[in-house]
Amino acid sequence: MTVEEAGEIVVVGAGLAGVRTVEQLCRGGHRGPITMLGAEPHPPYDRPPLSKEILRGDRQPADVVLRDAAFFADNHVDLRTGVRATGLDVEKRLVLVENGPAVHYDSLVIATGLQPRQLPGAGDLAGLHVLRTLDHCLRIRESVGAGPAVVVGAGFIGCEVAASLRGKGVEVTVVDPLPAPLAGALGETIGRLVARLHTEAGVDLRCGVGVDAILDDGAGRVRGVRLSDGAELAAPVVVSGIGSRPEVEWLAGTPVEVGNGVLCDAYGRTSIPGVWAVGDVAAWYRPALDKHVRVEHWTSAGEQALVVANDMLGTGRPDQPPVVPYFWSDQFGLKIQALGDIDPADEVRILDDDGRRFLAAYVHDGHVAGAVGCGRAGRVMKLRPLIAARAPVSELA
Ligand code: FAD
Question: Which residues line ligand 1 (CB under 6 A)?
Answer without folding.
Answer: 12-18, 37-40, 47-48, 50-51, 84-85, 111-114, 131-132, 157, 247, 250, 279-281, 296-299, 301, 327-329
